[in-house]
Amino acid sequence: MNEPDVSVVVCVYTEDRWEDILAAVASVRAQSRPALETLLVVDHNQALLERLAKEYKETHEVRVLANAGPRGLSAGRNTGIAASHGEIIAFLDDDAVAERDWLRHFADGYTDPRVMAVGGRTMPIWASGRRPAWFPEEFDWVVGCTYKGLPEGRVQVRNVLGGNASFRRTAFDAAGGFATGIGRDGDKRPLGCEETELCIRLTRARPDAVLLIDDRAVIHHRVPQVREHFGYFRTRTYAEGLSKALVARSVGADKGLESERRYTTRVLPAGVARGLRDALLARPGGAGRAGAIVAGVLTAAGGYVLGSVRARRGGATFTVVEIERSGEGGTA
């Protein structure tokens, strides 16, 4: 049986991450299981588009193209999907590097034809060199990383996490692409949940679909110093609440908040208890972690309530687009 070809999509938007982008591409090119191609999708930044096209002009397996949709991560991913040739499409953040066997573990998951998506484990690289003492591992999703409470090994999940994920091409044929208007848009408020909404939509379109996380498919994600501060933590948890409200409005609270109920009723109380225990034992950061968990829950809940009101009033919407394959395009 022939192994499926894998296309890798890396969405980029700023020259400030130039070295990170080069490192991300280098990590894809060093895979033990080579990618068919790497697509760099540039989000409405002509200077960066031209600079990358020049950088990879002689590198045939790297293609540089402009986001063909509205500004934002979702439209960039949709552009990459449409232009790619692989049977499997993997996504890597522009400020992350993949371990050598990343794609091999992804591809292994697709031996079962029911598998429509495989995600991996994302580890933080803290700009300060170490995790802030107050920052709870249960909230590592705030900085785009795998968080404490997710199941370990290769397991079936409701949704994969977008910065380290892969999908079978037929998943997009069945469900459409990433929804625009829900995910990130450059440096604006750090919304999310576009991959959650897509995965729920996919399993509705294909009830037999299996979605997996394989924690051997590892990437290392850079966390800039600004995201190590409580101000960003608060902003991101609030934005997550807003995003979750949009998803719940679209797919229903039962499915939209299915995983979150277990997380808030089991994982987070256990995290608070550990933090308080560490505080009693005079271990550094224990009280801070317990307080951050409580603050994160309250802030996300506030965002969810406001987002629900906006969604009911029709003030917050997102759009699902069909993926029309171009299979070509690009400047490198």
Q: What does this molecule look like?
A:
By secondary structure, the chain is of the alpha/beta class. Helices cover 41% and strands 18% of the residues. Strands 1, 2, 3, 4, 5, 6, 7, 8 and 9 form a nine-stranded mixed β-sheet that branches. Helix 5 crosses helix 6, helix 7 (230-251) runs parallel beside helix 10 (286-312) and helix 9 (258-280) packs antiparallel against helix 10. The longest helix has 27 residues, at 286-312.
Please name the defining characteristics of this protein.
332 residues; alpha/beta; globular; 10 helices; 9-stranded mixed β-sheet
Question: How are the SSEs placed, and which strands pair?
Answer:
Blueprint: E1 6-12, H1 18-29, E2 37-42, H2 46-55, E3 62-66, H3 73-83, E4 88-92, E5 96-98, H4 102-108, E6 115-126, E7 154-156, E8 164-168, H5 169-175, H6 194-205, E9 210-223, H7 230-251, H8 253-256, H9 258-280, H10 286-312
